[in-house]
Design brief:
The protein is an all-alpha fold. It folds into four domains: 98 residues, Orthogonal Bundle (Arc Repressor Mutant, subunit A); 75 residues, no CATH class; 79 residues; 116 residues, no CATH class. Helix content is 63%, strand content 2%. Strands 1-2 form a two-stranded antiparallel ribbon. β1 and β2 form a beta hairpin. α12 packs parallel to α14, α16 runs parallel beside α18 and α17 packs across α23.
Length: 490
């Protein structure tokens, strides 16, 4: 009989009860509010052919999203489905719902659930219908049991206070569903873990000197450390000591625990503490090596190089090698690694005593050979082959004066003076000559075909006095060590 001009709807008003704005809107999702308001608007058109599909298109939502929103308002008794196919809905006044709830066909399970929530809060807090409706959503849409939701509410009161936000508690309900919480026992176990996370995060904040509740992001990090990474609460607190070196925060602590996790199996308080102490000792020793060599590197790089050194030799040997490298102004950490490898592979050095013995011998041999080279007129620096000859001569019992005497005799050689010297010493060794007086009494070795005229007997051993070497010449001993290490490593 009567029909309204549909175009006039654009110039009209859609009435929304203040009760809806106060009691229902704060807890509802934005899309749910869109559907409700659009439904109220559509009621004025009285168009029986308007479908859910059309509503979804008009609101830029999917059909399942619109259906979920209508179910949401059905559970709050603001909307009633009056037919299934085609789907038709009747909108009720929120004020009518508040004043005459018995007149509305409310689900008795919902009523029982609401009464349980009222009983939990008692006189502590006045609960709104929207808050009860939201928690009922966790039963119907999320899929939790009513008992699990009631346990969740009690848990939130204990952890967040009686005035906690139902909206902020919703992610916890979703996590319960994701963890397949079904029975009340499942819920108790899950919520006990959540309580452990809250208390642990609070202790971490306290250790950092912060007096506040943990944020959701911080709780998520703590849960990761505890559940995914397997750290104990004591281990997490022990790791907090490392945050004092920077700006203490959960993000900083996350990096520290991630590093501990990547470097070892320590997860308990005692083992993490020991690992941190070990790493601190390792860092201090790495700095000690760098200081010995007058080098400066990033801490992480320094520790990495130090671990490479430790894989070759113990710390005491590394320290001796670093001291030796420091005598060379061009030595770097790679030279140190070469020297350590050379000592181990070529010399069989595995401890500080062996390293010191080798260094003493190397220094003695190089300095002695420099004197011998000066005496025989040989140019160049001592090589490994020269040191092996020197070692052989010492085993023959030949002292410094005898070696220098023989070196003086070798000046006449036109070819290799060291080879000539070795031949002279070999002849003396076969003749049993071990000192300069015996060598002077023996007839001079045959002179080469061409060369300087032989000298008369030289019996004054004192003419070969101890030579004073310059700092540069002493440093060259370390240069010889480094050069030898480079050659051996290739």
């Amino acid at each position: 009989m009567f029909e309204r001009d549909k175009e006039s709807l654009a110039f009209g008003i859609t009435a929304v009860d203040n009760s809806f704005l106060m009691d229902y809107l704060p807890a509802a999702k934005g899309d749910y509010i869109k559907v409700y308001l659009w439904g109220l608007f559509g009621c004025q058109a009285m168009d029986d052919t308007y479908s859910i599909t059309e509503m979804a298109n008009d609101l830029f939502l999917s059909v399942p999203e619109v259906e979920a929103a209508l179910r949401y308002w059905e559970r709050r008794a603001l909307v009633t489905r009056i037919s299934q196919s085609p789907a038709r809905y009747c909108f009720h006044s929120p004020l009518q719902r508040k004043l005459a709830p018995a007149a509305m066909q409310v689900d008795q399970d919902y009523v029982s659930f609401a009464e349980s929530i009222y009983a939990i809060f008692g006189e502590m807090r006045k609960i709104s219908p929207a808050e009860i409706a939201l928690s009922w959503e966790w039963v119907k849409d999320v899929g939790l049991s009513p008992e699990a939701v009631l346990l969740l509410i009690s848990h939130c009161i204990s952890q967040r206070g009686v005035h906690f936000s139902f909206k902020k508690a919703e992610p916890l309900a979703i996590r319960m569903k994701e963890d397949q919480v079904i029975t009340p026992e499942d819920a108790e176990a899950f919520l006990q873990h959540d309580q452990q996370v809250h208390e642990g995060a609070k202790r971490v904040l306290s250790r950092m000197g912060k007096r506040r509740f943990a944020s959701d992001d911080e709780l998520a990090l703590y849960d990761k450390w505890l559940t995914q990474w397997g750290f104990s609460q004591e281990a997490i607190l022990d790791a907090c000591s490392e945050t004092t070196k920077g700006d203490p925060s959960f993000k900083y602590l996350d990096g520290i625990l991630g590093g501990i996790r990547s470097r070892g199996q320590a997860r308990t308080g005692d083992s993490v503490k020991k690992q941190l102490e070990k790493e601190q000792d390792e860092k201090e020793k790495a700095y000690d090596i760098l200081n010995r060599m007058n080098l400066s590197l990033h801490p992480a790089v320094a520790v990495n190089y130090y671990r490479q050194c430790l894989a070759i030799q113990p710390h005491e040997v590394i320290a001796l090698a670093a001291d030796e490298c420091s005598r060379s102004r061009k030595a770097n950490i790679e030279d140190l690694l070469r020297m350590l490898e050379s000592w181990k592979k070529q010399r069989g050095i595995t401890d500080a005593a062996g390293a010191q013995k080798f260094l003493d011998w190397f220094r003695e041999a190089n300095l002695a050979l420099k004197e011998i080279f000066d005496a025989c007129g040989h140019t160049g620096k001592p090589a490994e082959s020269d040191r092996l000859l020197y070692e052989k001569w010492k085993k023959w019992g030949m002292d410094r004066d005898l070696l220098l005497f023989a070196a003086e005799q070798s000046r006449v050689a036109e070819g290799s003076k060291i080879a000539y010297l070795d031949k002279v010493l070999e002849m003396w060794h076969e003749a049993g000559i071990t000192d300069i007086s015996q060598a002077s009494a023996r007839r001079r070795p045959p002179r080469p075909a061409q060369g300087a005229q032989p000298q008369g007997k030289i019996v004054n051993a004192q003419r070969y006095g101890q030579r004073d070497y310059t700092e540069a010449e002493l440093l060259s001993v370390s240069e010889d060590l480094l050069e030898e290490a480079r050659k051996q490593r290739g």
